[in-house]
Design a protein that fits this description.
Number of helices: 15
Radius of gyration: 22 Å
Order of helices and strands: HHHEHEHEHEHEHEEHHHEHEHEEHEH
CATH class of the largest domain: Alpha Beta
Shape: globular
Number of strands: 12
CATH superfamily of the largest domain: Type I PLP-dependent aspartate aminotransferase-like (Major domain)
Strand content: 5-15%
Number of domains: 2
Distance between the termini: 56 Å
Length: 409
């Protein structure tokens, strides 16, 4: 077990308790077994009933998965949790855990990940769940939606994708609870290093563990952590839906979690340097970064984010059209073009064809996502090399587009 007095980076390295009889390995072995023998039929009966700890069948539990979940419970100050096969499965599990039923309403921030909007608008909507999408940066508007719809569940993100808006989580949680709504917070972009939403009033927290938690682009998974009240429904979801995380993926993500402190802090530092340099270059139509004073949610960011930890994503509006964005991506030499964040490499994504591909042009316009916008997930390279690559690609893209490239001396 971890010591509650340990500081964050110590906790990151040591959280998650290996359970191996008679030995104490520094690295937990991988347990690929699909089933586990029990010492007696009576004990197996108690195991299957959840009355004693242990393992019986991989869909019900696995030592590697349990170690990862234990670590995340400590980091997010949660009482229960599960690991899933993907971040999308984590969102699905969280919604199920709130007990939403046909005829109920789910409020969702317009700024959440596009696939989360699609999940609610298709699978859950087909189950006769009413889905209401709104701009939750306007708390007056949010409160009116609460009073009108009396939702069962609310889904938001801590840092939105790709515009990096930060919502007032404590106030949203407070307002949600006045109508007995349950707040689900996707904490993927901030990680527990920047924010612990459960301590701010949220009911359930989810992560795409594929991103910063794993951190190396080699394992897909999801995490759901919550108060003890949600234990039964979360574990029922895994047993019945079967969206379980594999032991090898759990091992990789847990290994990545141990270096999250040094990785993510450095990525945040790099992002701040890159964002400032790109803004100063005046080549881009606009540079979005949560700690810039011209960001629409800057005042909330000042209150909820640490001064040096504004996240590791920078979003750029090149100005122009989709063709401009394509030329920019094609001209990149160091920075890769891939549909993820949180890797050790700096990667660019074009939301129009990836994260928000299924949103209509009108919906993207309402969200503020333009046809010339790209998202940069900052990695661990030297920031000066990343800056040079992004600027040279932007110059070529805008020159071919006929745009005037402005640059300070």
């Amino acid at each position: 077990m971890s010591d509650k007095s340990w500081r964050r980076n110590t906790l990151l390295v040591h959280a998650g308790t290996p359970r191996v009889e008679n030995i104490q390995p520094t690295a937990l072995p991988i347990f690929p077994s699909t089933s586990y023998q029990s010492e007696s039929a009576e004990r197996l009966d108690r195991l299957m009933a959840g009355e004693v700890p242990g393992f019986s069948y991989a869909r019900h539990g696995n030592p590697n998965v349990e170690a990862l979940v234990d670590a995340m419970k400590e980091l997010e100050e949660a009482q229960t949790g599960i690991a899933t096969a993907s971040g999308m499965a984590a969102i699905d599990a969280a919604l199920y855990a709130t007990g939403v039923r046909p005829g109920d309403t789910v409020l969702v921030s317009q700024d959440v990940y596009g696939a989360s909007l699609n999940l609610l608008g298709t699978i859950w909507a087909e189950s006769e769940i009413q889905v209401v999408v709104g701009d939750f940066t306007d708390l007056t508007r949010f409160e009116s939606l609460l009073q009108k719809h009396k939702p069962t569940s609310i889904l938001i993100e801590t840092l939105s994708n790709p515009l990096l808006k930060i919502l007032d989580v404590p106030r949203i949680a407070e307002l949600a609870h006045t109508v007995e709504a349950q707040l689900i917070v996707d904490n993927t972009f901030t990680t527990p290093l920047i924010m612990q939403p459960l301590t701010l009033g949220a009911d359930i927290v989810v992560h795409s563990a594929t991103k910063y938690l794993g951190g190396h682009g080699d394992a897909m998974g999801g995490i759901v952590v919550a108060r003890e009240d949600y234990h039964d429904r979360l574990h029922q979801y895994l047993k019945l839906r079967g969206a379980v995380l594999g032991p090898f993926e759990a091992w990789l993500i847990h290994r990545g979690l141990r270096t999250l402190g040094v990785r993510f802090e450095k990525q945040c530092q790099n992002a701040a340097i890159i964002a400032e340099a790109l803004r100063t270059s005046q080549i881009f139509e606009r540079v979005f970064y949560p700690l810039f004073s011209d960001h629409p949610t800057y005042s909330v960011a000042q209150r909820l984010l640490a001064p040096a930890l504004g996240g590791a994503v920078v979003t750029l509006d090149l100005g122009g059209s989709q063709a401009t964005a394509f030329r920019f991506l094609n001209e990149l030499q160091l920075v890769g073009s891939a549909t993820t964040v949180g890797d050790i490499y700096t990667l660019c994504l074009y939301p129009v064809i990836a994260s928000h591909r299924n949103q209509s042009p009108e919906e993207r316009q309402t969200m503020g996502i333009t046809d010339s916008m790209v998202r940069v997930s900052v990695g661990l390279e030297d920031p000066d090399d990343v800056i040079s690559d992004l600027i040279q690609a932007a110059k070529i893209a805008r020159r071919k587009d006929g745009s005037v490239v402005m640059q300070q001396d």
